[in-house]
Amino acid sequence: MVTLFQALNIILDVVWFVMIAHIIMSWLINFNVLNLRQPIVGQIWYGLNNLLEPIYQPIRRILPQTGGLDLAPLVAFIILMILQRALINNAGFFYGY
Predict the structure, then answer these.
(1) Exposure letters 29-41 (e unless 16+ CB within 10 A, then b)
(2) What is the CA radius of gyration of the chain?
(3) Residue 69 DSSP label
(4) What pLDDT, in 10s, does the model give residues 10-57?
(5) 3-class secondary structure, 38
(6) Among 3, 22, 45, 74, which residue's beta carbon has the most beta carbons within 10 A?
(7) Contact in structure between 63 and 72 (CB atoms under 8 Å)
(8) DSSP state, 64?
(9) Where are the domains of the chain?
């Protein structure tokens, strides 16, 4: 069980870092610091979008339309943090505390 806990924790950590990279990159693109016409920037951006879109799409269906403001990454980030905290709080069960 400890291995399962550690594997889930690593997966959630990786998703957290990917989401942070996507959020920061979206800000940099919107403020014209990064340009999507640069090949490496475009590849990273579209790769991150392809990874995270399956997570964001169900959330977008539930959330009301807010115009140009996309709240799906924020909601997904909050859900991810709740999952991490729940996993850590239940770690005592796995470790026998």
Answers:
(1) eeeeebeeeeeee
(2) 16
(3) -
(4) 999 999 999 999 999 999 999 999 999 999 999 999 999 999 999 999
(5) coil
(6) 22
(7) yes
(8) P
(9) 2-90
Determine contact, residues 76/59, Cβ cutoff 8 Å.
Answer: yes
pTM over 0.90: no
Cβ neighbours of residue 65 closer than 8 Å, sequence gap 6 or more: none
Torsion sign (Cα): 31, 38, 69, 47:
negative
Give the number of other CB atoms < 10 A from CB of residue 9: 14
Distance (Å, whole) CA 72 – CA 65: 11
| C-alpha–C-alpha distance, residues 4 and 14, integer Å | 15
